[in-house]
Design brief:
Blueprint: H1 24-36, H2 38-53
Region (Disordered): 32-66
Biased composition (Basic residues): 53-66
Length: 66
Amino acid sequence: MMDPESPTPAPKANWELKEVRYSLRDLLKEVASEQDSGSFGMEKLRQQDIGKMFKKRPRKRRDSNS
């Protein structure tokens, strides 16, 4: 019978962390192609619209006579 208070051992991971290197030339080509695509332009527009939503606007003054 197992003791319910004893912790169960954690399963061993079957993976290792490995370094991946990318060519700068390939990365720059990918960035250039993304900038030329329409979806990248739409993303920039969305960010601008979101920025406008959260832009601080001056508060309207209430008339103190009411």
